[in-house]
Amino acid sequence: MNALCSTCGVARPPPPSVARSKTSVTATTTTTAAATTEEVEKLQKGIAELYDESSGVWEEIWGDHMHHGFYDPNYNNKKDKDDALSLLSDHRSAQIRMIEETLRFAAVPEDPMKTPKNVVDVGCGIGGSSRYIARKYEAQCQGITLSPVQAQRANALAAAQGLADKVCVSFQVADALNQPFPDAQFDLVWSMESGEHMPHKAKFVNELARVAAPGGTIIIVTWCHRDLSPSEESLRPEEKALLQKICDAYYLPAWCSAADYVKILESLSLQDIKTADWSKNVAPFWPAVIRSALTWKGITSLLRSGWKTIRGALVMPLMIRGYKMGLIKFAIITCRKPEHVVTTTTSECAAENI
Fold it and tell me: Region labeled SAM motif II — which residues (predicted)?
């Protein structure tokens, strides 16, 4: 299950059906074997336990946005080395900027008459993005996570901020590969740094497309490995070894490239597909997280948390190394569901290898 995807070939099926059981994409890869149901359940259990254990530590230091910040490429990362928390507000502002830059890249309308009114946050953490988007657009937002602790905390924060009743913001424990929502419900489908946890990338994207309303926007911001060159069949052994260590600590299955995501989106006849590599824009984030972990507050919080959180902290330098060597890419992929979706009868989803 933790083998690394080297390349993905995706056959083009008919456009996605409006029925869950009839949505299909066929995909194969040269190196990654199918994850069994038992392996997926084990992975998802580990993900839930990791975030049950670590979310409180993150919130205590970094607040309710559990994702990278967005920085100008010339950001001076050395200026806050002497006092790791003195400019923490700058990094939290960068996390808000990440949301805004993502919405801007996806061309989400600012016109009050056209803004999204029904949003799903897939892999919602403790609901930071959902609450921000709900306030920005006065939209109804629903979030899903594998972590009961995250869902409970997200609902508590929404209630405390008056959002649970005002614009109907709610969170629940659910599987992103089998979302508990009807077809064509959301005009904005948001996934901020959750795709890397998905054991079947094509099933994940299929579900994003299924719950998107006709004309709705789909946003995927995720960790990817670099694109392969035409002469390459796989990543280099040393690259695979580095990613495997990260997989083991953060409960990640097979990695794929942004190009692999594009192939899946194209296979579903989704429109206006755009991608960008924001690796340089997030480069200051992991050093800042490491410095915050090395403060007295960070160390004591880690010691109170548990082994999964501590192991994740120990692997953070490998993320920096992966970015610096050009192996890890911070990718944004956006698209739009066609206004008119053709209903077709196709085989069951066969995306077992991505």
Answer: 184-192
Q: Is residue 217 part of a domain?
A: yes
Query: Which residues lie below 8 Å from residue 47, measured CB to CB, with a gap of 6+?
Result: 146, 147, 197, 251
Q: What is the spatial distance between Cα 256 and Cα 31, in angstroms, rounded to a whole number?
A: 11
Say which residues have a Cβ less than 8 Å from residue 265's Cβ, sequence separation at least 6.
Answer: 205, 273, 333, 335
Q: Report d(CA 84, CA 97) in Å as an integer.
A: 20
Query: What's the whole-model pTM score?
Result: 0.86
Cα atoms in the Cβ-side hemisphere of radius 13 Å centred on 312: 23
Q: What is the CATH number of the domain that holds 29?
A: 3.40.50.150
- Confidence (pLDDT) at 354: 65
Nearest to 335 by CA among 138, 179, 189: 189
Neighbour tally for 138: CB within 10 Å: 12
Give me 83's structure tokens. 């006092």
Each residue's pLDDT tens digit, 328-348: 999 999 999 999 865 433 333
SS3 at position 275: strand
Asked if residues 141 and 130 have their Cβ atoms less than 8 Å apart, the reply is: yes
